[in-house]
Structures are given as C-alpha cells and as structure tokens.
Design a protein that fits this description.
Elements lengths: L3 H32 L13 E4 L1 H7 L1 H38 L5 H55 L3 E4 L13 H11 L13
Parallel strand pairs: 1-2
Helix pairs in contact: 2-5, 3-4, 4-5
C-alpha cells in the first residue's frame, strides 16, 4: 500500500511525457533543419540562340522557286497582251495622222481627243494590272514566309532556344547555332508548292 502513491505519480509523469512527445519531435526536427546546409538551387540553363537565314531560306525554297516560275509565265502572258494593245494604239495614231490632211479640223480634233482618252485608259489599265501582279506575288510569298515562321517556331521549341535571330542581323555565327539548312528542309516538306493565279493576265 505504501508504493501506490509513488506508482500513481510515476504513471502520471509518463502520461505527460507521452503527450509532449509530438511537440518535442517537431522541435527536434526544426533544430536539425536549421543546422543542416541549405539545398543547392537549380541553375537555369544558359540562353540558347538559334540563327536562321530567313531571306536565304525563302529564296531557295521549292515553293518560292515555283512561285517565281509561275509569275514569269503570268508576266509573259500579260506582257503579250500589253504589247498587242500598244501596237494597236500605235497603228491608230499613224492612221489618225494620215487623216489629218483630209478631215475637217473639228472632226480631226474630236478623233484626237477620243484617241488620247483611249491611251489614258490603257495606261491606267496597265498600271492597275502591274499592281495586281505585285500584290499576287506578295500574297504568295507571304504564305511561304508564314509557313517558315511556324517551322522556325517549332524548331525553337524542340531545341529549347530562347532567342531566334535572322542571320542578316548577326555579324558572325558558329555552325552549331545556324539552323538554316534544317529550316529549309522542313519548309520544303511543309509547303512544297503554292498555286499562283492572276486575273490580270486573263483580261
């Protein structure tokens, strides 16, 4: 019976210690972490630069080569029609000059005014057709350029490149960052042909 108070006190201390164990464990873990060296930070990879000769790739692409050939054919057909119109106007001018001596002045003047009107209309038509051909060429080449931009963007993603430069903007470049050849290969595969149509050549 004399040991019961001692046992009771001892049991109460054990219960208190058991309740404090979680807090002691947290405190101990905090001290360990504070004393441990800081973990090494992950270094960001150096910026990788990709260089592409945009102008050269566009010029040498099979699509651009095909566009130039089609435009040559369209311009030849266009020039043939223009030459025929110019020849007709020259013949008309000669005929009008021959009639000057036999026509009344007011009649000749009327014919001359009408002739100048047709010359001006033809000149405006020629200028409009030339502008249309230029726009058609630019539109076709814009399709090639946009496709090349998409190709370069995909290559940059694959290479994890953070900067892409046009070769014209670079004074010197190492071969290992010049992706022009690969860009040309992929562009030719992505866009082997662009169909060019010109209403101006058909008028």
């Amino acid at each position: 019976q004399s040991r019961q108070p001692f046992l009771r006190v001892h049991t109460m201390r054990q219960r208190r210690l058991l309740k404090l164990l979680p807090y002691l464990a947290v405190a101990l873990l905090t001290l360990v972490m504070a004393g441990a060296p800081a973990a090494a930070k992950i270094e960001i990879e150096p910026t990788r630069v990709m260089v592409v000769d945009v102008g050269g790739v566009l010029r040498d692409s099979v699509a651009a080569t095909g566009i130039r050939k089609q435009m040559e054919s369209i311009r030849a057909s266009y020039q043939s029609k223009i030459s025929a119109q110019e020849k007709a106007l020259i013949n008309e001018e000669k005929a009008l000059g021959q009639q000057r001596s036999i026509l009344a002045p007011e009649v000749f003047q009327k014919k001359a005014v009408e002739f100048r009107r047709r010359v001006e209309e033809t000149q405006k038509k020629v200028q409009g057709q030339r502008r249309e051909l230029d726009q058609i060429y630019k539109k076709a080449m814009t399709e090639v350029r946009n496709t090349l931009i998409n190709v370069i963007a995909e290559m940059a993603k694959e290479a994890q490149a953070r900067v892409v430069l046009d070769k014209r903007q670079v004074l010197m470049v190492e071969n290992n960052v010049d992706f022009s050849a690969e860009a040309l290969t992929r562009l030719n595969k992505a866009l082997p042909q662009v169909k060019v149509t010109a209403a101006a050549a058909q008028k």
